Amino acid sequence: MKEMIEAVREFHRKFDLKEQGGEDMLHRMNLIMEEVGEISQCLTKGKPREDLIEEHADLLILLLGNAIAQDFDLEKAFWDKLKKIMRRKSRMVNGTIRVTET
Questions:
Q1: 30, 35, 79: which is closest to 57 by C-alpha?
Q2: pTM of this prediction?
Q3: Which regions of the chain are under pLDDT 50?
């Protein structure tokens, strides 16, 4: 993950995102919602698997960029959160499994 974060950090430097508004969190959240919508379109419109994969990569790049923009350790946050969710119980809701606190 460190290599991916460094590559995205280089992208932020190359395009001067910090100084050009590209690290504004409202802007970034809008981009994330756009990517999630594109993932949904891939599924609902039956687009090729390659398109679905590319949209997930776009989403990952944005999430890594959030860690850069907000200066937090996403890898540590990932492992901390995974430990929490691994202790949860699962339940069925409307025929699909859910693993949530409530």
A1: 35
A2: 0.92
A3: none
Neighbours of 5 (CB within 10 A): 16
Q: In the chain, what are the domains?
A: 2-73 (1.10.287)
pLDDT in tens, 72-87: 999 999 999 999 999 9
Number of H helices, E strands in the chain: 4, 2
Q: Where are the beta strands (DSSP E) in the chain?
A: 91-93, 96-98
d(CA 88, CA 40): 27
- Tell me, what amino acid is at 73? D
